[in-house]
C-alpha cells in the first residue's frame, strides 16, 4: 500500500509542485490552511507531513507543536519545508519536534530522498515498538494460558498493595487450585490436563473484571488479585468462578465430556496486620489448604 503524505502550505503553487512530485510514489493530500491541518491529520493519519512555516492564522511551528502534544499524532514525522533558511528558524523547527528541514526552492531529488529516509526510519521505529510490546507480553504472561505470570503478578500486586494502603481502599486475593488434577492427567492424559488448565483460565477471565489480575501461579495453581474489592465481593465472585467451573462440560473426545472442580482460598487484605503482599498470598494459601481439607470444590476465607 502506498504511504500517505500530507502537504500543508498556504501557497497554492507550492502545493501543486509538491503534489505533482510526490504523487508518483505516494498517496498525497494537501491543504492550504494551517487551521485545517490538525483535523486532516487526525482524520487521515498520514505517514508523513510536509509542513510550511510561514502561514497565516497558526504557523508551522505551532501546528507541529500541537501535533506532537497529541498521543495519536505525535509519532508522525514532520519535515519542514520553508523559505526561511536562517539558523534560528532551523533550530526552532527541530525544537518544535520536526524530523527534518528543507529550504525552498528545494531540489526535487533531494526532497524525495529525505521523504524516503524519513519513512524508512518510521518503519524501523514501528517495528522496534512492536517487538518491545511483544517482549513485554512474553515476559509478563504464561505461554499456555496467556494469563499473567508470577513475575508480573508480584510486581503489580506490590504496587496495588501500596496504592490500596495509601488510599484506604479494599483489596482481596484468591488462590485457587484444580481438584484431583493428577487423576485427570492419569485418566485422560496430559493433553486433556492442559485443556482443563486452559478452560479454567478462560472461565476466570470471563467472570472477572478487566482490572482484576489473573495469574498462573504454578502448574495448576492460580492467583487472582481484586483491587478495590472487599472480602464479601470477592467471596461472591469466587463462588461464581467455582460454580462456572463445576458446570462446565469439557469435551475430551467425540463421545466423552468431563467435569472438573476447583478449591479457592480467599484473603481480604487487612492493612493493620498485613505488611506485604507475600503475607497475604500465604494467608490465601492457608485458606486454600483449608478448602481442600474441607472436601474440595468450595471457597474458604
Ligand atoms: P488436589 O485436589 O489436592 O489439588 O490434588 P491434585 O491431584 O490436583 O494435586 P497434585 O499437586 O498432587 O497434582 C498436581 C499435578 O498437576 C501434578 C503435575 O504433574 C500436574 N501439572 C502441573 N502443571 C501441569 C500442566 O501444565 N499440564 C498438565 N497436564 N499437568 C500439570
Ligand atoms: Mg507560507
Ligand atoms: Mg496443586
Ligand atoms: Mg490440585
Notable traits:
five-stranded parallel β-sheet; 10 helices; 12 strands; binds magnesium ion
Strand composition percent: 15-25%
Strand order across the largest sheet: 2-1-3-4-5
- The rounded Rg comes to 29 Å
Number of helices: 10
Task: Report the helical percentage.
Answer: 40-55%
Q: Can you give the mean pLDDT? A: 96
Q: Measure the end-to-end span.
A: 58 Å
User: Spans with pLDDT under 50 lasting ≥5 residues?
Assistant: none
Q: Give the class from helix and strand content and strand pairing.
A: alpha/beta
Oligomeric status: single chain
Total E-strand runs:
12
Write out the distinct hetero groups bound to the structure.
Answer: 3'-deoxy-guanosine-5'-triphosphate, magnesium ion
Query: How would you spell out the order of helices and strands?
Result: EHEHEHEHEHHEHHEEHEEEHE
Write the layout of secondary structure elements.
Layout: E1 4-8, H1 12-22, E2 27-31, H2 34-44, E3 48-51, H3 60-69, E4 78-82, H4 87-95, E5 100-103, H5 108-140, H6 150-167, E6 171-178, H7 181-188, H8 190-207, E7 213-218, E8 221-227, H9 231-247, E9 250-251, E10 257-258, E11 262-268, H10 277-293, E12 299-300
Structure report:
The protein is α/β, with parallel strands linked by helices. Helices cover 50% and strands 19% of the residues. The protein has helices at residues 12-22, 34-44, 60-69, 87-95, 108-140, 150-167, 181-188, 190-207, 231-247, 277-293, and strands at 4-8, 27-31, 48-51, 78-82, 100-103, 171-178, 213-218, 221-227, 250-251, 257-258, 262-268, 299-300. Strands 2-1-3-4-5 form a 5-stranded parallel β-sheet, with helices on both faces. α8 (190-207) crosses α9. The chain is elongated, with a radius of gyration of 29 Å. The model has no long low-confidence stretch (mean pLDDT 96). The structure holds 3'-deoxy-guanosine-5'-triphosphate (GH3) and magnesium ion (3 copies). One magnesium ion is lined by residues 9-11, 52, 54-55. One magnesium ion binds at residues 9-11, 52, 54-55. Residues 4-119 form the Response regulatory domain. Residues 114-141 form a coiled coil. Keywords: Coiled coil, Phosphoprotein. Its EC number is 2.7.7.65.
Amino acid at each position: 500500500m502506498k504511504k500517505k503524505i500530507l502537504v500543508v502550505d498556504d501557497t497554492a503553487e507550492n502545493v501543486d509542485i509538491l503534489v505533482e512530485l510526490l504523487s508518483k510514489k505516494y498517496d498525497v493530500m494537501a491543504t492550504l490552511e494551517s487551521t485545517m491541518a490538525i483535523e486532516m491529520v487526525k482524520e487521515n493519519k498520514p505517514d508523513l507531513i510536509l509542513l510550511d512555516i510561514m502561514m497565516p492564522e497558526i504557523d508551522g511551528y505551532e501546528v507541529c507543536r500541537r501535533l506532537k502534544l497529541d498521543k495519536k499524532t505525535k509519532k508522525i514525522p514532520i519535515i519542514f519545508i520553508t523559505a526561511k533558511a536562517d539558523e534560528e528558524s532551523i533550530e526552532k523547527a527541530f525544537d518544535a519536534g520536526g524530523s527534518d528541514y528543507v529550504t525552498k526552492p528545494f531540489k526535487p531529488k533531494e526532497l524525495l530522498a529525505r521523504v524516503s529516509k524519513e519513512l524508512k526510519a518510521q518503519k524501523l521505529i514501528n517495528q522496534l515498538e512492536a517487538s518491545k510490546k511483544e517482549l513485554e507480553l512474553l515476559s509478563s504472561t504464561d505461554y499456555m494460558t496467556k494469563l499473567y505470570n508470577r513475575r508480573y503478578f508480584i510486581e503489580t500486586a506490590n504496587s496495588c498493595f501500596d496504592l490500596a494502603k495509601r488510599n484506604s481502599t479494599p483489596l482481596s486475593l484468591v488462590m485457587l487450585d484444580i481438584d484431583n488434577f493428577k487423576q485427570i492427567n492419569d485418566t485422560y492424559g496430559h493433553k486433556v490436563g492442559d485443556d482443563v488448565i486452559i478452560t479454567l483460565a478462560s472461565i476466570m477471565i470471563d467472570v472477572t473484571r478487566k482490572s482484576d489480575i489473573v495469574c498462573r501461579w504454578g502448574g495448576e495453581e492460580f492467583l487472582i488479585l481484586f483491587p478495590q474489592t472487599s472480602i464479601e465481593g470477592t467471596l461472591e465472585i469466587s463462588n461464581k468462578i467455582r460454580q462456572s467451573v463445576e458446570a462446565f462440560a469439557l469435551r475430551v473426545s467425540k463421545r466423552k465430556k468431563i467435569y472438573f472442580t476447583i478449591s479457592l482460598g480467599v484473603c481480604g487484605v487487612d492493612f493493620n496486620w498485613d505488611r506485604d503482599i507475600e503475607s497475604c498470598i500465604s494467608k490465601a494459601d492457608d485458606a486454600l489448604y483449608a478448602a481442600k481439607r474441607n472436601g474440595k470444590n468450595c471457597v474458604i476465607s
